[in-house]
Amino acid sequence: MSEDERARARRVLAFALDVAMQMFRQGIETAVVVRTVRRLANAGGIDDLRLSVGVRTVHLQHCPSGGGEPVVLLGSIEANDTRDIGRMGDLEALAVRAGTGAISPDDAERAIGKLATAGPTWPWYISLLGGCLLAAMICLQANGTVLAAVVAAALFVLANRVGWALGLIGIAEFFQVAAKASTVLVAAIALLSLGLLDGHEAASLSAANLVLLLPILSLVSLVEDAIGDYHLMAAARMVTVLLLTGAILTGVMVVVSVANDLDILGEAGRVHLATLPLALVPATALVGSLGNAILMGTPARWWLLACAAGIITSLVNWAGHSILGLATPLSIFLATTVLGALAGAAARTLRVPTAVVTIPGLTGAVLPGPALYLSLSQVFAQVDGSWTAVAEAVVSTAAIGVGVVLGLQLAALHRTESRGPDLN
Fold first, then answer.
1. Per-residue pLDDT tens for 14-32?
2. pLDDT tens string 284-294
3. Range with top average pLDDT, 62-71, 107-116, 365-374
4. CA geometry: angle at 82 spanning 78 and 83, to 5°?
5. Is 198 helix (H, G, I), strand (E, B) or coil?
């Protein structure tokens, strides 16, 4: 391999690796990132790319057919529970344009540099508004009152700003999450002690906010990676899930140990999730999906699609549970399979990232977060059968990832080359 050929190959792989690192940082699925890297390498004339996804690392290697020293690049992955769907769309659109030759290598490199330094899709206060909507919706799903839902939204802002302040001074994420959990319970206990809320309201707004701290998206990504044979990445995500869940439990137990004379967890153990009438199912899904879409940085042009995904998924989930009589994990699996198929179809026809459909859809319609929190509260309160409820909530969450992956694969069966390149 000549020096010019080596330099060209290194430039192609460096660009592909840069795109991969940014895609991982925005939470794009590992399988999508791998396909994108191979597409970019092929567009640059590298057909024999060796690619390996390890524990938070991506390894690229090009061995020239004519012999000589291989070109090797290694990148470190930043993958967490944060998402910016607008940035996802920008990255995937750029990858498609670069992979099809619609943009020159120089322009592609400048574009990826701009994306690396670009700010979030929405200002922080707009994202907070989305989180407030989501917290209020979850509180109502946990059978909270309108007053509790309003307080839950305000409490979301308080906990978020506490975490933000700790992050500014360099406190590790574990302690940020623990502090957020503690803030939620301290505020709930204070309102309960002052008589401004009753025990049921305090428990429901606590459930709403602690649910939003759970690393649900990382857990779903863990399942997706495990099914997709990216086992090392799945193992790394499992560490993240366990660490952040442990942080929440640490924050909760610190407060409970200090204020053990107040029965906040006992009240939580007696809360029952509301069985919503059919007329309210799409309404709550719409609010939850819209709130999560805003929180996750979805551009306004995709809000309608995000809300539609939540409504459809919620109705399928309701039908599976109420009409077909399926157990909760099975009805969630059915709903998320439909969601994954819709996401694949939207990516193919509308040229949008699958996350535009999947993330708001599952968060607004099928996340068993309230059930997971309430079942853990029942464990603390020593309610009979609470561990069975925990196991069902965990299985239900795992079913989300399995269903989404199956739906995406079913949608992929109908793709044809004549329709042009896909974003995913």
1. 888 998 888 888 877 788 8
2. 888 888 988 89
3. 107-116
4. 105
5. coil
User: What is the mean pLDDT of the segment spanning 348-368?
Assistant: 79
Contacts of 172 (CB under 8 A, 6+ apart): none
Residues 6+ away with beta carbon under 8 Å from 277:
none
> What Å distances lie between residue 136 and 130, 131, 156, 205, 311, CA to CA?
10, 9, 9, 8, 17
Residues 6 or more apart whose CB falls under 8 angstroms from that of 218 comprise 80, 81, 237, 240, 241, 244
Phi–psi pair at 244, nearest 5 degrees? -70, -35
DSSP states of 54-73: -SSEEEEEE--TT-SPPEEE
CB 119 within 8 A of CB 90: no
Task: Report the C-alpha gap between 141 and 287 in whole angstroms.
Answer: 12
Place of tokens 């306004």: 300
Cα separation, 57 vs 234, in Å, equals: 12
- Cite the DSSP H helix spans in 142-193: 146-168, 173-193
Question: Are 69 and 12 within 8 A, CB to CB?
Answer: no
Q: Burial of 379 by CB count in 10 Å (0-12 exposed, 13-18 middle, 19+ buried)?
A: middle
Q: Crossing angle of helices 85-99/3-25, nearest 10°? A: 160
Residue 393 has pLDDT above 50, yes or no: yes
Residue 86: partners with Cβ closer than 8 Å, 6 or more residues away: 120, 121, 122, 297, 298, 299
Q: What is the three-class DSSP state of 52?
A: strand
Residue at token pair 């929440």: 248
